[in-house]
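Q: Got a minute? One more chain.
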Amino acid sequence: MTTELPETFAALQITGIHESRVVRLPMPVPGEGQALVRVKAVTTCPQWDMHIYNGKPMFVGQPPIAFPYPPGQPGHEMTGIVVAVGPGCSLQMGQTVCAWKDPGKSKPGCYAEYVLMQEEHLMAVPPELPVEKVASLELAMCVSASIMRLGSLIGIAGKSCIVNGLGSAGLIAMQLLLAEGATQVIGVDPNAKRREVALAMGAKAAYDPADSPLPLRRKPGAAHLAVDCVGYPEAVRFVMDRTNEAVSLFAVQRDDYVFRHGDLVLVGYPGHSREAADYALNWIAQGKLDLSPLISDRLPLTRYNEGVERLMNQAAIKICFVPNEGGEPR
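A: Always. Here it is, folded:
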């Protein structure tokens, strides 16, 4: 089932290091179990965007980035409206949906006016929620998986917590810890503006790691739990030395970590799950998780380079691209 659609649509394509353009692609027809979504908003996943923009693999051991990169990639944090469905797809025409899982780069991505996705990678969301509050649901799902595991293994309610790194993942982790009943959350980040955002979003305090007054573990006032959203050995060491019970390692590991304290529990990342996506959406609907403060700018796809440069300069936390709001060639 479809509505009347144009024959082609605009999509971003990263063509080389620090180079991108908007191209036109033929409108796809949904196949079995697929839905075609008109993209209302798509937010950056900063590490993916910056690595690909700079031609560097995200993970150690990956091959070099091959250009031109697939159209619409690496966009995957998307919300939009279902405009066509294929056989066997239970989503309804006109339904508001979010991508809760990144299907990978083998197919065109969400930096586009339209995107074709498998139904199992989409979930319905309340249509009254502004796009800024739901577009980053996929990232919220990722962070939620870590918070859920930390809660099930150690428990969060009644405990003091540290969040190391106050980018988009850290600000989500901070809110989820508070939603789970943490007595206080203290943020750590060298960026003063991000510390200000954390304070405005409920952090008890926020410190630069270079001059932090946080006490060492086993000292009065040391935190019970910590979530690391940085991923560098010195950053992980910082929270290990200041946490009594457990450290959740959310960030992509950059190098080997040295496990310094035998009685400290290290909680690894459990992987993506629809359960974690439902968990995140539940907190969003209750108003306990607000993704909108993560968005620093709304831009058309034609200004993608500008948006990623803002991420690289830490002048923005996330950029929200609005493909159907003008700026693309028709």
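A: The radius of gyration is 20 Å.
Q: Perfect, thanks.
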